[in-house]
Specification:
Blueprint lengths: L40 E8 L11 H8 L2 E9 L5 H6 L5 H15 L3 E5 L14 E2 L2 E4 L2 E4 L5 E4 L6 H5 L1 H7 L1 H20 L7 H7 L4 H18 L4 E4 L6 E5 L2 E5 L8 E5 L5 E5 H13 L15
Parallel strand pairs: 1-2, 2-3, 3-5, 7-8, 8-10
Antiparallel strand pairs: 1-11, 4-5, 6-7, 9-10, 11-12
Helix pairs in contact: 1-3
The structure holds manganese (II) ion.
Manganese (II) ion binds next to loops.
Protein name: UDP-2,3-diacylglucosamine diphosphatase
Organism: Novosphingobium bradum
Pfam family, one: Metallophos
Length: 307
């Protein structure tokens, strides 16, 4: 800005009122945790997905409890965080859902790198990939380098629905058909959206075909491992099918961080690069049990399955 011209008739613009001693941020960002709160765990990275804020199924209170329990350098929100489809049908937004958003923004403000990967239920955010809001980076996928040097592709996983649907054919048709199907899935669902039809949902499809669900989950995992391998990654982190998992497929490690609708699970990385699944409903149950028992009772089993 050039210095104000004293001869100019334009009145000086008053300085904005400072609402917080630390600058232009709301005061709630600095609210301390309640007294006597358990010490925070320190993770290098945390992945959560399929929170489905805006739906009655979302276990927001459990998630707030989890978000309050740790500090992390990286927090990846791996898609389907806000359920835009459900909100379009009817507004449902209780306080606990606000609290999730508040916790995430607070973490970003205090130095956690927060990356929000777009899923299929929050696809409206896709247009904003590459932008950053309130310290939250929006992206369609991300690359994570673990502390022990592994390169992981982080993506929601909905792109592979078409591949999973036609998995048996793919065995005959090969890699080019696979690439084509990845594109077709996006086009088909864009067309369905224009026709007012819902996204072709893998999880709904699986539920209709319960008998074959195990096979289809395997196909999903194989499709993602194939993608990671083709693109030269050591592993892949995804969500989408609401099924937490750490599994080796060929040379690829497949990680699924689960969901906060049914299982209340997250994926975490410690400072040595070891990855584990946290089952928060089990952790909470263990804590309640420990609270009921005398102080000399053995500590509950840790909920993390180190790998
Ligand atoms: Mn999804």
């Amino acid at each position: 800005m050039s210095p104000a011209d004293p001869t100019s008739a334009t009145p000086a613009i008053p300085a904005p009122v400072t609402t917080s001693p630390r600058g232009q941020v709301p005061d709630w960002l600095h609210l301390p945790d309640p007294k006597g709160f358990r010490p925070k765990k320190r993770y290098r990275s945390v992945w959560i997905s399929d929170v489905h804020l805006g739906t009655r199924g979302c276990k927001a209170a459990m998630l707030v409890d989890f978000l309050r329990s740790f500090e992390a350098e990286n927090l990846y929100l791996v898609g389907d965080i806000i359920d835009g489809w459900s909100l379009r049908k009817g507004w449902f937004w209780p306080d606990a859902h606000n609290e999730v958003v508040r916790r995430v923004l607070k973490a970003a403000h205090h130095g956690t790198r927060v990356v929000l990967i777009v899923g299929n239920h929050d696809e409206a955010l896709r247009d904003y990939a590459g932008f950053s809001f309130g310290g939250v980076e929006l992206a369609t996928e991300a690359v994570h380098l673990t502390a022990d040097g592994r390169r992981l592709l982080v993506t929601h996983g909905d792109r592979f629905d078409g591949v999973v649907l036609y998995a048996r054919w793919l065995a005959f048709l090969g890699d080019q058909a696979y690439t084509l199907l990845l594109r077709a899935n996006i086009l088909v669902n864009a067309a369905r959206k224009r026709l007012g039809l819902p996204y072709w949902s893998l999880s709904a499809y699986l539920k209709r075909r319960v008998k074959n669900a195990v096979q289809f989950v395997c196909n999903f995992e194989d499709a993602l491992a194939h993608e990671a391998q083709t693109r030269g990654f050591d592993g892949i982190v995804c969500g989408h099918i609401h099924c937490a998992e750490i599994r080796t497929i060929g040379e690829i490690t497949y990680f699924n961080d689960g969901d906060w609708v049914e299982s209340c699970t997250a994926l975490v990385e410690d400072h040595a690069g070891a990855m584990a699944i946290v089952d928060w409903s089990r952790e909470q149950a263990g804590r309640e049990q420990a609270g009921r028992q005398p102080a000399s009772a053995p500590a509950p089993e840790p909920a993390e399955l180190a790998l």
